[in-house]
Every structure is written in C-alpha cells, then in structure tokens.
Amino acid sequence: MLHVRGLQKLIIEEREEMSLQLARAQLLVIDGWGFELLKPAHRNDLMEIMDDRHGQTFAIVVSQLPTNQWSASIGDSTLA
User: Fold this and answer.
1) In a domain, 80, yes or no
2) Domain for residue 32, yes or no?
3) Model pTM?
4) Tens of pLDDT along 6-57?
C-alpha cells in the first residue's frame, strides 16, 4: 500500500524528471497551442520549462491562434 506522502514524493520525482527531459531535448515542439486558457500551475510549468531551455535548445510553437491573442490564452499578459 502506498501512503499519501509516498505518492506525493513519487509524483514530485516524476514531475522533476519530466521537466529535466523537456529541458534537455534539443527540439521541443508544442503543437495546438492556445485552444484552452492555461491554469496558473500549468502557466508556471510552461514558463519554467521555457526558462530552462532559453539560449540552449530550440522550441517551436504551432498554433492556429493569432499571436496577438496568446496573452489571453496564457492568462497573464506579463508572462506572454
């Protein structure tokens, strides 16, 4: 039986590993961007991933949403 603390630790470790994998990939493609408003936690995750990659690797963002509407989709014009 896995206790709540053990499960929380496992989730945190898995999340950190996924973030490292995304940061290390030479090319990150985000397709279908902007169809749903980002929740604060997702917005923070995205910004951490992009910040880790900045100046080191490549990212391509694909969307049918016009770029002038991205800040509304992100939900925070400062981060957009």
Assistant:
1) no
2) yes
3) 0.69
4) 777 888 888 888 888 888 889 999 898 888 888 888 888 888 888 888 888 9
* Rg of the chain taking only CA atoms, in angstroms: 15
Q: Mapping DSSP to helix (H, G, I), strand (E, B) and coil, where does residue 27 land?
A: strand
The helix (run of H) or strand (run of E) holding residue 45 is helix 40-53
DSSP bridge partners of 60: 29
| Contact assessment for residue 74 and residue 43, using Cβ atoms and an 8 Å cutoff | yes
By residue count, the chain amounts to 80
Query: End-to-end CA distance of the chain, in Å?
Result: 43
Cα dist from 47 to 2, 28, 51, 80, whole Å: 32, 14, 6, 10
Residue 35 lies in a domain: yes
Q: Which residues, 6 or more positions from 76, have their beta carbon under 8 angstroms from its beta carbon?
A: 43
Q: Is residue 79 part of a domain?
A: no
How many structural domains are present in the chain? 1
